[in-house]
Amino acid sequence: PNSKLIAQRWQIIAGVIRENGGVVTAEQIAPYLDVDRLPDDDGTADGGGVNVDEGFVLPALVRFGGVPEVVTDDSGRTRIVYTFPDLAVTAGE
Q1: SS3 state of residue 43
Q2: Helices vs. strands in the chain: H and E counts, helices first
């Protein structure tokens, strides 16, 4: 019974990644992975600027061929995003 749940969970994660053009943050896929503590919106667990270990994303990176990237948004805020080239939806799809 658990094997079906695990397969279903991976299908959901792949769907979330595809829906976001192949690029997601840890927070977007955290609900579907085994996470001890979820990060706040600012990337911290306690609101005090302490970095959170996003190691829980590793199984998804391995399974779907993802890579972490550091990006800076328009406000100058730096974040880690995870890019999955094989799950990126192209214009022809």
Answers
A1: coil
A2: 3, 3
